[in-house]
Amino acid sequence: MAWLQGVDLARVAKNMAAALSVLDSQRPQDAARRYRPGVGPLPETELLARLLPILKSSHPAAYAQAEPRTYPGSRRDCDLVIPGSWAIECKLARPYGDNGRPAERWSENVLYPYPGNTSCIGDCLKLLESRFTERKAIIVFGYEHTPPKIPLEPALASFELIADQVVGIQLSPRIDVSIPGLIHPVHQQARILAWEVLERRPPVA
Questions:
Q1: Dist CA 26 CA 42 (whole Å)
Q2: Which helix (H) or strand (E) holds 143?
Q3: Which residue in 163, 133, 194 sits closest to 1, CA to CA?
Q4: Of all residues in the chain, what percent are helix, strand and coil, respectively (each to 5)?
Q5: Rounded to two decimals, what is the model's pTM?
Q6: Which tens digits make up the pLDDT trace of 3-34?
Q7: How close are the terminal C-alpha atoms of the chain, in Å?
Q8: Residue-averaged pLDDT of the chain
């Protein structure tokens, strides 16, 4: 699998951003058609399921074998594994709902700082404790108005601070790719935020 080693995280983020733009142009709706067209309202698993065929079609050499995979020795799934390259957990960050009203507790999806939960922090810990031989990463799909009414930046900076100063997780510098001009009237622009999850410092005695 040596040919996959060249898929760096910045390239993965840019490829995902391009795939997201293509998907949005198809005016997708969630399976139950509860929400208006556009990528913004899609649930996480549905979004990833629709992005993956676009990635495979656009970049077959890199993503031909990419798919969700079970954690070694566990029944839990990792959102996306690019064999020999990356094990990636993904999250959504949407300060507003499809109805245009502020979403309650949206930032908990990013910030909740305890093991065993499904926040970005929890996923970082899960990745670090896993037996995946691939490098580990977190990717956040963030949505905002243009210009932002509730900007993502405070939550993103808080995630980085909590990971480092509270939980002791070392992250790479943030990768940030913007996708303007989405079709949804609320989720008008997107950002793909990515960090490599490097290690966890041992607690200070």
A1: 13
A2: strand 135-144
A3: 133
A4: 35, 25, 45
A5: 0.93
A6: 345 589 999 999 999 999 999 999 999 999 99
A7: 41
A8: 93
